[in-house]
Amino acid sequence: MHIPENALIIDCVTRWNSTYDMYKRLLQQRLAVYAVLHDEKVTRLSDARTLDLSDSQWQIMQSMAPVLKPLYMATRLVCSEAFPTSTTRELEDRHTGINIAKEISAICDEFKIKHNTIAGLVSDNASNMVFLCHITDVLGTLCSSR
């Protein structure tokens, strides 16, 4: 089959990247998974029916992997030792993108950090949303008037 021999990865709810890892590995091993599930010498028919994935499930994985990849990369970046951990700040204004961008800009100014050299991981506990933004993308037009 000319597919790398790798074990499948199981999603773990406590590990943020495990869904991406699982999808990526399953997509890589799709032909091998199909072959094993459809080989009666290896897999019982009842197990194959339970474990076999439909075309729509494969399509969902194929569509979701690129969506999850930036979050995977962000998590690896933020958790690496190459980047210092930032501080937590309360926002006095509403938690809007503009107010968050202004606060990040103020932090850059305070610590004399170039705006185009940092990335921010922003979390809003109220809605449990996490996203990665590059400071120049968020602040592009806001900082140009300075």
Automatic annotation (TrEMBL):
Write down the superkingdom of origin: Eukaryota
- Per the UniProt record, the source organism is Tegillarca granosa (Malaysian cockle)
Name it.
Transposase
Q: Which InterPro entries match?
A: RNaseH-like_sf (IPR012337), ZnF_BED_domain_contain (IPR052035)
